[in-house]
Amino acid sequence: MKKLIVTIITGTLFSACIKEGAPKKFVPKFVVEGIIENGEVPVVKVMHNVPSNFVIDEKQLEAIIVRWASVKVSGGGEEEFLTLTRNDKVFPYLFYVGNSLKGKAGQKYKLEVKYNNDIFLSETEIPLHKPAIKGVSYEWLDPEKAQPAVNIDNANPEANYLLFAKLVTQPDFYPSAPRGIKAIDQAGKEFTVALTRSRSLLDSTSSSRYYAKGDEIAIKVSNVSASSYTLWSAVAQQGLQLSFLNYSSNFSGNIEGNAAGIWYGANASVDKLTIK
Length: 276
What we know:
The chain is built from 2 helices and 18 strands. The chain is mainly β. Strands 2, 3, 7, 8, 13, 14, 15, 17 and 18 form a 9-stranded mixed β-sheet that branches. A 4-stranded antiparallel β-sheet has the order 6-5-9-10, with no helix packed on it. The model is unreliable at 1-21 (pLDDT under 50).
């Protein structure tokens, strides 16, 4: 595993504007980030947070990951304790994954995380509406910078869209329009969104916000509930990053207990294109 020195600061992965404010006293909390998608098993990350501008090396980065938690997801008459899984290509390296329980559209799901004497609870719902992608495309901004775009069927005015993209060889999708898009704000039967490139802390392939010739890209459009959309909008506005590792004290999310973060359901569609 490559050596890694990280200075954790807000705003490096998101382009949202952040207003300067008086520094606040750091309050240690747990950080929980979880998702359950239609047809997919739940994935939950549990960590400790760190204060702003805290410099940590790779060994310390791994140490803040909570690896001995009990993580349970239940809904629709099913429940499952998630299994701790390791993947050195993503952050965090260790996270909790389901095996048999898969999300169903229209169903509510409860999350319960136990760690020593701490208990964190949340509930979310997977929307019924599955986004319809009408097509994907790209344009050259200059000879070396290509920007992909996705055309979305705007059939459901109650939809709340989050957009993600990645190289097909990458394990995770990354936010491409962090604030998301509300269908009701778009005129017409369809709309097109240009996407920028984001990357994870561990991704050393490129620092560019754009793509290059030969890149194979997967684009995901997720429909989330109104409450989940509001939470993700708050994330984008504060420039949060690294799975909420370094978060504003103004943000708590929808996790009950001494924790911050988000547990959310999504109904997603994926399409692919190649930059030629």
